[in-house]
Amino acid sequence: MSKLIAVVGATGAQGGALARAILADPSGEFAVRALTRNPDSGAAQDLAAAGAEVVAADLDDEASIRAAFDGAYGAFVVTNYWAPLTPEEEAVRTRAEMELAQAETAARAARDAGVQHLVWSTLEDTRLFFAGRDDVPSLDDGRYKVPHFDAKGEADELFTKYGVPTTFLRTTFYFDAFTTTMPPTRNADGVLTITFPMGDQRLSGVASDDIGRSALAVFKHPDLVGETVSVAGDHLTGDEYAAALTDAIGEQVVYHAPTVEEYRTYPFPMAVEMANMFQFYAENHDEFTGDRNLAKVRELNPELQSFATWVTKHRDELKASQN
Fold first, then answer.
1. Structural domain boundaries in the chain
2. pLDDT digit string, tens, across residues 4-49
3. Can you give the pLDDT at residue 52?
């Protein structure tokens, strides 16, 4: 009988990738219980049609999460810092506070349900790197440097606190961002441009599908309980990302590298937080990329995609993002 994995955020990028990976796994070792706030959504119905058990659950409703974890061998937990919130919701708590509360809810529910292996999607706590640095603005009333990293890193200890057998799966920048939140845009000269303040340092990236496949591989390795597994599919400079995008789109794409100080002034929400994130990527690049050893990741997930492989697969989407 297949062991049941409860997948939080099963209609999102990471949870959806894991759900699909489990459903496609010819070994049949695991079955999927897909947790979603809206089981009537098209994505949820697609999972149900593919063989997943779809249940309504919300990380802000502990009883629903506890019920959804009941009888599950394993659980995959991811929180969504970028979830759309109303002004009223944002007034009650910060997004980082939301993530911490949701992680604690999941940890308690997993403990109470007797989950035997939990995979927690997390990131580094950048405060350990930026400690005492006045040149990196603090956010959330001085509590964090990069809230969407730091809150996840802070939440790691909650799973240990509640005695949950956990593997800490550290992710990174999504290749998928080039078709969604960070597509190439035309500069004043009409040239397609990607922009981030990394200078000539390498930016680790990964396909969201590979986060799911890697998580599935972790569930197949109970010896990884208590371990931190860091994943990436490639480590490229901005110029190398631009060259691969040029090949895929069939039109020149160039890389623009403003300073982090300039990037913080850009007129979009969370520009300061994103600038701090890129500063962390750039200044901590040796350790960050070293922790994401591509050969080791590929041992875990033999289907791991390089960026060149990913852009070839997503050529049509990349072209469509320019229309």
1. 1-170
2. 999 999 999 999 999 999 999 999 999 999 999 999 999 999 999 9
3. 98
Contact yes or no for 203/232 (Cβ under 8 A): no
Q: Are 175 and 240 in contact (CB under 8 A)?
A: no
Give strand pairing partners of 74.
Answer: 5, 117
Between the alpha carbon of residue 100 and those of residues 94, 257, 298, the distances in Å are: 10, 33, 31
Residue linked to tokens 């320019």: 322
Measured from the Cβ of residue 175, the count of other Cβ atoms closer than 10 Å reads 26
Tell whether the model's pLDDT for residue 1 goes beyond 90.
no
Query: Selecting from 3.40.50.720, 3.40.50.450, 3.90.1030.10, 3.40.50.850, what CATH number does the domain 1-170 have?
Result: 3.40.50.720
State mean pLDDT over 180-208. 96
How many Cα atoms are found within 13 Å in the side-chain-facing hemisphere of 247? 12
Q: Is the pTM of this model over 0.90?
A: yes
Q: Residues for the chain: how many in total?
A: 323
Distance CA 23, CA 88 (A): 38
Tokens of 213: 């496949």
Q: List all residues 6 or more positions away from 202 whose beta carbon is below 8 Å from its beta carbon.
A: 235, 236, 237, 285, 289
